[in-house]
Amino acid sequence: MKFSIFFGAAAAARISREGHGVGLSAQVTVSADGSLSKTLARAAEDTRTRRQRLAMLQARAEEMAHTKLSPDAQGVIGDVLLPTLKDDIESAVLREFTTTQELLSSKVAGLQSKNSEAEKALGVAVTQDKALDQCRTEEQNLMRDLEKCVAERDAKIKSDAEACEQQREAAVDACAARDDAANIELSALCIETKCNLADGNSCGVNGYRTIMEGVAATVAEKERVFNEKSTLCSKAQDDAAATCAAAEQYSSSDSCASKREVLGSKTSSCDQSSESASIAICSFGSDLQSKCADLSEVHELIAEIKGSSREDSLSEPDRQAEWAAVQRLTCLLEALRDDGDLSTEATAACAADRKYPKTFDYMSEAIAAITCDQKSFSFSGYSWIMGPTADECCRSAASLPFTAGADQPAFPVCGENPNTELLIGEGSELVKGTSVGEVQASENFEVSFVVTPHGTREGWANLIHFTQTGGNCCNEGDRMPAAWFSTGTTRLYVRSGRKGSGNDGCDPTQQLPIGKATKVDVRVADGKMQVFYDGSKACEKNTFGSPTMPSGTMVAYASDPWYNPALVTLSHLSYTRL
Questions:
Q1: What confidence category does residue 17 fall into, taking pLDDT thresholds of 50, 70 and 90?
Q2: N or C: which end of the chain has fewer CB within 10 A?
Q3: Beta strands per DSSP E along 21-116
Q4: Which of 262, 254, 237 has its CA nearest to residue 156?
């Protein structure tokens, strides 16, 4: 009768007298009379073949238990087989334990990092959405102010028009009275057309003097009345002209212009705030979907680790079973070597004392703290529908349903925005001269990205650079925009071109925290450059009233070919045309 025992490279090296290299396995043939022969054969060591070899060793050892072994065979057991079990199979089991534990630990650490990023992104989204809610509330109040102003203006225009008409009518009446007063009916003076001097004094000089004095007095009175009414006519005409001119001037001017301008500015600001809120919400949604995917992977990995009969290196029950089999075989071989008790009971008792030395940490507490079961998010808790009037603007309680699958938008507002181009999704470290795509240029724009600094370097350290010209500096269009860390710091230096300067911008004073993610928004619109950190304004420059008028496409770098890259991880880089 003849059977074979296979064992690993370490044992083969120990028994080889010819110096065969590592990577070979030895094949020992034990004959019934105890003679030994050895051959070398190449074999790949993996979990499945190792366990198959262990099972075969077990079977052969049990056969050996019924065979009288020669001293040489017992020596091989002590010098080769037992060390092989310990150095090859047992050590491989422990290495696989360590590798599997490190794999799970690494994935859980990545999951915790993703969870922290998602929580931070949620905070930014809530802040942005609350800012939008506050902005819309202020916009609605400004609409009411403007509507009140317009109503008062319309009422005044109507009142002024009525006053104008009334004063014109009064002037007509006054001038008509003047015209009436201008006429003197001489027949009403009662002067006789004939006079006879023979009749006495009544027809003499004195008589007529008396009559003419009465006529003169009457004419003088009428003249006084005429002059008085002429004055009243002139005054009424002047008053009517002044009132109507003032009414016309008021009507042709816009007394509500300042309120209209303030409202327009607020509406523009709220529209931009809405865009920022949507970007922040969708950035959070992307982070949350990524976290949910990682959480599913962790649960799947744990299921694989807890599974049995897998014939791979992950299963902890299989590993424990293999360890137990190794100990039973070790005990049996030791008994064969020492002519000891070969009974099943003795072997089992021996193996029971050699317990599996490891306890797998499934990190249950850490994983339980991370969930992905929330079906909706309220952020500010409200949504707005803006109408043409303040009363038609509707603020209502709202929450957005969340979709965990990465093949769908995380939230309904995250459908593709034709004005937004995503250039980088998941985070990566920067490599000098890396083009991440091209974008359609815009006069007004917002560039957003999430950056996690890992350290500083001497000299300017570039993060992003959009260039329309293909040049570095300092012509219009060279930087549209670009951002660096100042030498030896994590303080941003942000530049963008405008008419008259190809290198204008603003510099936040605070440094970004090392090891922590910060969402950065660079906005050029409404004559200003603004930089925001996690939704809070970090700096502003009011010199962009005449921004560069770009056309066509721009190349986006992260980082550019002209400077060393910043020591950061950069993700969620997007360019939005405003």
A1: very low
A2: N
A3: 24-31, 36-42
A4: 254
Whether residue 286 has pLDDT greater than 70: yes
Residue 490: CB partners within 8 Å, gap ≥ 6?
Answer: 453, 456, 511, 512, 513, 514
Locate tokens 């360019």: which residue?
Answer: 575
Give phi and psi for 419, each to the nearest 5.
-95, -5
**CA–CA distances in Å: residue 460 to residues 427, 492, 516:** 21, 10, 21
Q: At what angle do helices 316-338 and 257-306 cross, to 10 degrees?
A: 30
Entry pTM: 0.59
Judged by DSSP in three states, 310 sits in coil
Per residue in 230-251, pLDDT tens?
999 999 999 999 999 999 999 9
Within 8 A by CB and 6+ apart from 346, the residues are 331, 335, 340
User: For residue 408, how far is the Cα from the chain centroid?
Assistant: 17
Six token digits for residue 414? 């995250």
* AA identity, residue 158: K
* φ/ψ (deg, to 5) at 467: -135, 130
Residue 514 is predicted with a pLDDT of 92
| Cα separation, 424 vs 168, whole angstroms | 73
CB atoms near residue 34 (< 10 Å): 14
Rg of the chain over CA atoms, in angstroms?
Answer: 50
Can you give the pLDDT at residue 417?
Answer: 63
